[in-house]
Amino acid sequence: MPVNTSVIYLYDGSFDGLMCCIAESCRQHELPTDILADGCPQLTLHPTRRIPTDRSDARKVVEIMQNRISPAAVKFVKMAYLTYISKELPILQFFRLGYRYGKRVFDMHADETVCTLRKAVQHLRNESHRFKQFVRFTEYDGKLIARIEPKNCVLPMIAPHFAERLPNEQYLIYDKTNRLALVHQPGHSAILPLDSFEPDLPGEAEREFRCLWKLYYDTIGIEGRYNPKCRMTMMPKRYWTEMPEFDSENDTRPESGQLPPPSLHG
Question: What is the DSSP string of 33-98?
């Protein structure tokens, strides 16, 4: 049985680093008070221990998880790692439960650890599904740029979708919350750290297309079926900030009542 300790593990924030924290816990037969990634506040009197990232140790933990529990457990833990909750300790506890009970751990619906991670992963899946629909690109010199502000780290979840939908495009999706960028060129995608990103103001042609899109969005609405409560359920307001159909600046029509024709040059 592992011994509860007052020590706090510190790691580099990577998935491999978290797996190394699990390896350290198993080696020392101890349960840390907490596991904190770099950059997290550390206002504590508890002793801390820096856990170095060793890919060999991380690979062994993943192999044990795959063989002792199931391949589905590895996928589940990787998704749990992408969630916005304080997931480190629950993932460690899930690993220990799975090591003891095998794949039956997924049937332990009343267990607090399993329940917490299930809810977090479901939230990640739901949010990822929404961003597949709600990402709005702006064109800059033939490149597509989008910004999102998710709660979870959704870029690894949505990357295959956009690579399949836009295989021949050059695009960048910037995650303001996690300071990451999904960068795609034909044949290759990568998720890279990016502290900040502020694109230039859209050009005239882009603004014209935004006005057209806003006009289309407003025109297809059926007044008799207007239901703001339903819309808030299906499309929560926090997604609106980067969606041109909700930007009042795209609602400016000339006094003639006609939108200027879009510029299709280039």
Answer: SEEEETTS-----S-EEE----HHHHHHHHHHHHHHT-HHHHHHHHHHHTSSS--HHHHHHHHHHH
Give the domain ranges of the chain: 3-125, 135-200, 202-266
Assess contact for 33 and 8: CB atoms under 8 A: yes
Sequence-distant (≥ 6) Cβ neighbours of residue 150 within 8 angstroms? 127, 131, 175, 177, 178
Give the model confidence (pLDDT) of 85-129 as tens digits: 999 999 999 999 999 999 999 999 999 999 999 999 999 999 999
pLDDT digits (tens, 9 = 90+) for 119-129: 999 999 999 99
Q: Which pair of structure tokens corresponds to residue 163?
A: 């690579």
d(CA 99, CA 90): 14
**What's the whole-model pTM score?**
0.84
d(CA 45, CA 140): 50
Q: In a 3-state reduction of DSSP, which class is residue 220?
A: helix
pLDDT in tens, 48-82: 999 999 999 999 999 999 999 999 999 999 999 99
